[in-house]
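User: I'm preparing a small set of examples for a lab meeting where we compare how different chains pack in three dimensions. I only have the primary sequence for this one, and I'd like the structure in C-alpha cell form so I can line it up with the others. Please keep the answer compact; I'll paste it straight into my notes.
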Amino acid sequence: MNAILVREFGVPGVMKVEEVEDPTPSAGEVVVRVHAAGVNPVDTYIRSGQNSMRPELPYTPGMDAAGVVDAVGEGVRRVSVGQRVYVAGSLSGTYAEKTLCRQSQVHPLPEKTSFPQGAALGVPYATAYYALFFRAHAIPGEAVLVHGATGGVGLAAVQICRAAGMLVIGTGGTGSGRQLVVDQGAHHALDHQDPGHFDKILKLTEGRGIDVILEMLSNINLGGDLGVLADAGRVVVIGSRGRVEIDPRDIMRRKASILGMMLTRADDDELYHVHAALGAGLENGTLRPVTGKELPLAEAPRSHHEIIESKAYGKIVLIP
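Assistant: Understood. Below is the C-alpha cell output for the 320-residue chain.
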C-alpha cells in the first residue's frame, strides 16, 4: 500500500509517499481502509520534531481518518469487516491507504456523515468536547468565547456549545470566516484582529463577562482573555506557539482559572464518554463536521504548510 513516511524530522518536505506492507491486526486490533485522513496542527509539530511526542523513525503521520473496516483481530466486538467507521488515534498513522488501530480508537460512522467529514472528527471534536465538559465543566446558559473559531477545533466547539444551550461568541480574522462561524451556530462573530474586540465582548455580555474561553492561540490572546472573564470564569488553553505575559491580579479578583489540556492526556474512560457523545451528535444532526480542503495524499507537505498558515477554514483532509 501507499503511505506517507517521515525518515527525518524537519520541514514539510520530509514527508514522502512510499510503498509499505499492509498492516495485519493482532488481538484487539482493527485495520481500516482509509477513504480520508485528517490533518491536525499537532501533526506538524510532531513532524518538525518540536513536540514532546517523538515517534521512532521512520513513521507515518496522522491520528484521524475515516473509511471502512478491512480486517479485525481476535476478540474485536465493537466493529466488523465492511463497517463504515471514523478513527480517533492510530497505531500505524493515518496518512496511508490503510491504518492499524486499537478497537477503542475506531467508532461507527453514520451513513449521513461523509468520509471527509468523518476524518474531521477525531482530534478537533474530541478536543472541543473534552475542553468544554471535562476541563471547564461548562453548563447550559453560560457564555462561551471560542477564540479562533474558524479552524477544526473552533468550529466543532461552536456546534457543541450551541447544541448544549450556551451563548456562543466566536472570532475569526476574515469576513468569510466570521460568516462561517455564524452559519455553524455562533450567536455573534467578532474580528480578533480588531484591538477593540475585547470591549465588544463585554458589551455583548452586558458587562458580565465570559464564563468559558476556549483559547487557540494563548501566546497572543491570554492576557486579554483574563480581562473579559466573568466571576469564576475559566480559560482552557488549547493552543499556544510561545510564551505570554499576564497580570495574575486578573485571575485573583475574579476567582478565575487557567486550565491546560492535551487530548493525549485523556484516559480511555474519558475518551469513551467523549466519543459516545460525538456519535449521538452525528446521529441527531447537531454535529456537522466542516471540511476545508481535500488534497491527494502526495500533497501532505502542502497540507502542513496551509494548516499552520491558517489558509483553510475547517478541517484539511488527505484522500489516499
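A couple of notes for your slides: The longest helix spans residues 268-284. Residues 2-121+289-319 form a domain with the Quinone Oxidoreductase; Chain A, domain 1 fold (CATH 3.90.180.10).

User: Perfect, thanks.
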